[in-house]
What does this fold into?
Amino acid sequence: MTLLALTRDDIADYVSAVFLVYLILIFARILLSWIPRIPYNPYLRAVVDFIHQVTDPYLNLFRRVLPPVGGRGFALDLSPILAVVLLLIVQAVVVGLIRG
It folds into this structure.
């Protein structure tokens, strides 16, 4: 009987995939912010609420440091750019440390 053995590369690939999924959720959150009103659909609302609940705590850390630019109905939120850059740096460091 052969046991399933996970190598460091397998674990690093898994961790990298988790980071990638979170990055995709952040990009989905950015795209959702461009849509002013989404027609009500219970399934779509559940997906949108999930994306907001998962990404907002992380993005709010950067919104405190970098508030939206502009005003009068048009505020540009630059905090996701900083959040994505930092997440990519952390991903590279963590995955690099796991790979050894």
Observations:
- The CA atoms of residues 35 and 87 lie 25 Å apart.
- The chain has a mean pLDDT of 89.
- The chain is about 70% helix and 5% strand.
